[in-house]
Amino acid sequence: MAGETASSFFFCFDGRNARWTMFFDIAAFACLGSLPLYSIGGVVYATCLLRGEPSRHAAPRRLFAASFSLSLSLLALVVIEVLGWLSVRGRWMLWRACLLAELALLVVILPHSLLSLLTRRLFRLRRPWIAAKLAAFPFLLWLWLFYKLGEPFPLQEAKRGVASLCLSRAGVIGVAVMALVSGNGAVTAPTAALLRALFPVSDVEVREAERASVRALHALLQGRRRLASLEMRLRAAEARVRRQEETLKRHAEDFFFSDDQVGAGQSTWLRWFGRAGRRVIRAVPSGLVQAGATGRSSLAVRAAAAELSALRGEFVGRRFHLAELLEQKKRAAFASTARGALDDGLSAIFGVYCVHKVSPPRAQLDTT
Fold this sequence. Notes:
The longest helix has 53 residues, at 203-255. This protein starts with 5 loop residues before the first strand and ends with a helix. The protein has a two-stranded antiparallel ribbon with strand order 1-2. It is built from twelve helices and two strands; from the N terminus they run ββαααααααααααα. Helices cover 80% and strands 1% of the residues.
């Protein structure tokens, strides 16, 4: 390839500088394409999915932004391939890097993250690394199922390596999932549209949803106050028990003879007994008495935290329902305008045209 001309989107180099052209194209694609798409993915996650709700964990936002960036990067590579931009080696390296990153995200990172979050939610674990270790066995089971899914299909990947194996199975699973999602949407979307057309959103329904959201918010605030009060009581009880424990240890150490209290002419077994007793008292864990005394308060705090989590989920659901009602009312108001009527007419015309193009001609029906 020394005599080939490697053309870049920005500059043109001869074959001797093809490697520098490839590096420049990869850097330009990453800086002008992937990184801005990653930032846009984070904004889309915060505005469209969370709808202004604060996120307590950064991992879902980062994973969504990475999936968004990689998917649109692959689409951008298709456009670049058609237009012939960037060098041949640069395009090949970008295709390989994006596909490997997408496969790693789909096969390894996303399943393990979902299993870790599910394990952490089921067992109420506070440390993420413990949940990650517990999710290792379900993750290995997922890898085994992922490999077994491709056996009924005639996939030729034995000589192509792990990347081809993952790509073929990911394609099979992706086509199946898209078929299920599209079928579900094709069945439920007309039903929902007809129901909203026959029974539009009224002001009474919106006011009831607002009242339900306000009640859920009040319950959430009361749960937060109760949890804060219980935590303050628990900290006060822990401090009181800690002081009592230190006093008890000090009195227990004073019970044994010290070296100054034992005279020089007395037997040495008193010294040995006093030293051994003081060592045993110092070796007692500082939280042993505290855990037993504050166990009931800690259980109350855990129950209040679980109740607060349920109240938070109810409030988020009520708020999303209210947002959907307001959005549907806004769409109904837009449909009643001249612009909405024009859009409905154009959609009907294009729908009839698509059905006419998809349907077979009459001559073909007569021959069959």
